[in-house]
Predict the 3D structure of the following.
Amino acid sequence: MAATPNSRETPATASPQERAAREFLAQGRFRKARDEFKLLCKIDRPKFLPLLVEANIGLAREMAGKGMVEEARQVLSYLKTIVSAEQLLGLELELGAGSATPGQTPDRPSAVPEVLRTLAKPALAAAERRHLADWAVLAFEPVPNPAPEAAAPAEELAAIVSALRAVSERQFDQALELLRPVGQASVFSHWKLFVKGMVAFHRGESERAARFFEGLPAGSAPAKASRSCLLLLGSQPVSRDSPLPSEAAIEWACRMAGERGLGGPLLRAEQAWRKDNPVQMYQNLRGGIPRFPGEGPDLIGVLSEFAVNCVFTLPPKEQDNYMFWMEDMIDGQSCKNPVELLLFLRARVLGSAADMPDEVAVENWEEFLRTREKLHGRNPALDSMACGWLGMLFSKPPERDAMLIFPFNPPRSNMRNAPEARRLLEKAVKLDEANLPASLCLCQVYKELGRHADRNRLLDRMTARFPAEKQVLMLAGQACLERKAYKRGLDYLGQALALDRLDPAIPDNLVKALLLQAREFFQKKRPDDARMAISQTDSYEVPTPGNMTRSRWCLRIQQGMTETIWGDPARGRALLEEARRESPSEAAFLYYAGLADMAIRPGSARGSAYFDEFVRVRKSGASAAEAVALTRIWVQGKEWLGERMSQQPWDLLDNYLRAAAKHPFAREDGSRLVEFCIAENDFAHAGMELVAKRLQQDPGDPLFRLYRLKSHEGVELRREEVRIELEEILAEAARRKEEQTARMARQQLDALRIPPPAPAEPFDDLPPEDEFDDEPLPDFGGVIPMLAQLLGGKQGKSLKVLEDLVNLFATTPERELKRMRNDRPPGMSLADFDILVEMARVKRESSNTGFPPGNFPPQPRSPGTIPPADSGQEELL
Amino acid sequence: MNPYLVLDLPAGADDRAIRQAYLKAVKESPPEADPKRFQEASQAYEKIKDQESRHRHILFNHDCPANSPLDALARYAGRRRLDPLPFDAMKEFLRSAGKSGGK
C-alpha cells in the first residue's frame, strides 16, 4: 500500500464530514476519527482507507498505553483484515511487548531482523517507520548477520546502540563519532539527535541540549525520554499553569540526579504546592522520602531547604498556617528526626521572634542550639553569634501596642527587654570575646540599664581586644567624656582619627572633647591649659560655612561661649564678634549662639539675650533662604542638648518658619524647609503654611501638591480622592519633566494599588458576643467613669465636638499638644485632655488611608531581623 | 541555593578549600562568558568564605532556593554536572519512556 497522505493536510474541496474526521485524527481523537472514516470509506474507499488504518493504529496504541491490551489486540485483528502485515509489524511488536516488564527483552527478540527488513522498504508511512525504529533500538539486541537488504538499517541501528553505550561510559567524543553512519534521512535520525542531546546534557551545555531535545518528533520514544532531561534542564520554567510531568518522568529525572524513589512523592508534593497547600506539600515529601529532611549539599538537602524556607515567601495567611503546623510539630515532639526539629525551630524563631513572647523565643532558640550541638558538636563561636542576635533583637525598641489607649501605663523603655538582652549578650561575649557586634550592643544595653561601671569595664576590655576598630575607640572616647576623663577620651578619639581621617564624626567629637577639657581647666584655674585646648580645636576647622560644628564661625561661637562663661568674658566677646562677622547671617549667628549658650552654660533653660535679639531680627524680615540654615542649626542644637532642649528654641524656629512662609520664596528653599518639617514632625503646621504659600504662587506645582497630600496623613481621605490627586500630580510632573517628583507619585500610586489589609477576622474560638453580656467591664483605673462623665449627658452635638477634637489632635504635633494642654478649654480637666490625646494617637496609628504614614502597606512577613552578610549585626537589628 | 552545592563542596569545607573551589568556578565561568554562573558562584562564596559567614549562613539563611518542588529539582540539576546512567539503567529508562503515553 502506498504511503498515506499527511492526515493533517485537509484538501480545500473536503466535505464537512471529511474535515471533521481529519480534525479528530489530528487531535488524536482516534475513536471518533475511526468512526468517521469508516463511514467515509463507504463513499470513497481508496481515498479514506489509509486514514481509517491510521486512526485504528492510533486507537490501538492509545488502548495499549492505557493498559487495555486485549482491546488493542482486537483492533489489531481487525486491521489485519484490511492491511498488510508489514504495516502492522510495529503495532504488533508493541502489543506483544506490552506485557513484558521493564528491563526484560521483548517477547520476540528475533523480530529485530524482520523489523530491519521492513524498514529497508520505503512503503511504510514515516510515523510507522519511526515506531519500528524505536522498537528496534529499545530491543537492544545485536544483529550479527543482517539480510543484505537490511544491511544499511542494521548498521545504523548498531551505531545508535553503541553511541548510547558510549554515553553511559562518559565517552562523549566517541559517542558522536559512532553516530557518523546515521544520515539525516535515516529512519534513526531522531535517535542521533537524542544522543547528541544526551552528550550536550552531560557536558553541561544546557541550551544546546534543550535545542536537540525540543527538536525530537513528538510521540517518539526518545522524545518521551527527553521529558526527564528537559525537566532537569529547566528550559521550560515550571509554573503553576504548566502541565504536570508524569510520575515516571519525574522518577527518571531524579534517578539521573542520583536519587531513587522520589518520583511519586515529588509529584504529589508539586500537586499540593500548586493547590496552595504547603503543609501537604511538606508532608508528601516527608512521608515519601526516608532521608527527608536533610542538610547535605544534595537533592534531599535542596528539597528540604525549599520545603522549610518557602514559609518566608508565603502570603501572610498561608505563612501563619504553615508556621502553626511547624509549632504543633515542635510542641508535640512529633519531629521525624533531629534535622527536622532543627529546621523547624530555626524557621519558627526567625519568622516569629519579633512577635512571639520573649521567653518562648529564648526557649526555642536555646533548644535550637542544643539540638545543633548534639548533631554537629560544640561550636562556641556559632553559639555566640546566635545569642548575640537574639540579644540584639531584645535591645531594639518594642512594638507599640495600639490597644493600650489609656494613659495610665508606665513610660515605655527604649528596649524590648533590656535585662534579657543583657543576659544573652553577656553570654555571647563570654562564649566569644571576638564577637564585636554583640560587644557593641552590650555597651548600649548597659547604658540603657544605667550600668555605667559595667559599660566602662567592657569598653576597656574592648579597646584592648579591638585596638583597630574605629567604632570601639569612638565609643570608648565618648564614654570617657561622659565620665569626664577628657585626656583618655582625647587619646581614644585620636586613635580613631588615625584609623579614619574621613569620618566627620571623629573630629566633631574631638572638638567637643577639647572644649569640655578647656572648661575643666578653667574650673581648675588653669586658664593657659584651657586656652591651649581651645586653640587645638582650630586644627579641625573646615572651610564650609554650612558645617554646623567645625566651620570657622561655629567654632568661634563655641570657643567664645566657653571663654565667656568659664574664662575671660572679654576674650569671649572678641571671639563671638569674630564669629558674627564670619557667620552667613545675623539670624544664624544669634540662633546658634543662643543654643550654644544653653549647651555650655550649666543648668540653663534659656538661650540668653541672643534669643531675644533673634526675635528682633526675625521681626525685621524673615526669609526662607535663611530659614534653611536655621533648620540645620536646630538639628545641631538637638544633638547638643538632647532631653535638655526646652520649648524656647522650638518656638523661635517655628515662628521664624511661619514668618518666612508669609513671603514668596524660591522653590528649592521651600522644598528643603518642607522636607525638614516632615522629618521633624514638631514643625508640621509651619510646613503646611509653606506648602500653602507655594501653592498660592503656583497652584499646579506637583511637588508641593504631593507635600499637601502627605500632610493629610492621619485624616481620613478616601482612596479614590487620593488616587485622582496622585494621577494628576504624576501627569503634571511628567509635563514639567520633574523625574523625581514623578517617581515619588508613581510609588505612592503603586502603594495604593495594593489592596489594604482585610479587617481582622474574629478568632474562631471566641464565644459569641451574648456570652459576655453578664460579665462586668474590666476596671481601667477609673477611666471608664471619667469617659462616662465626659460623655454622659453630652450626646448629639457635644459628642460631635469631642469627635472633632480627637480628629484635630490626631494631626497636631506633640509640642503643639503640650502647649494646648496648658491652654485647654475651661472646664476640661487634665485627665479629660489626656484621654482625648490617647484616643487621637490610637486613631493616627490605626489609620487605614491610602497614604499610610510614611510606609507602604504591609508586605508578606519576612524575617526582618536577619543581618546581611557584610553588615555589623547591630546596625541592622 | 546551598552555597556548598553551587561550589561543589562537601559540607565541612574549610576556608582554603572554599576559596579554591570559588576560583575554579570563576575560571570555568568567567563573567563575560557566563555571567549567571559567575554571579551564582560569587554569591555562594560570599555566604561561606570565612567562619563568620558560614555561621551566619547556618543561623540565618532564609533563602528559598526554588519556586516549587519540581523547580527545586531543576535548580539542583542545574548546579551539578550529572553523571550518565549506567548502560543497564539507561536501557531501563529508555524502555520505560518508550512505553509511556503522550508525546
Chain B has a mean pLDDT of 91. Helices of chain B lie at 3-6, 15-28, 35-48, 51-60, 69-79, 87-99.
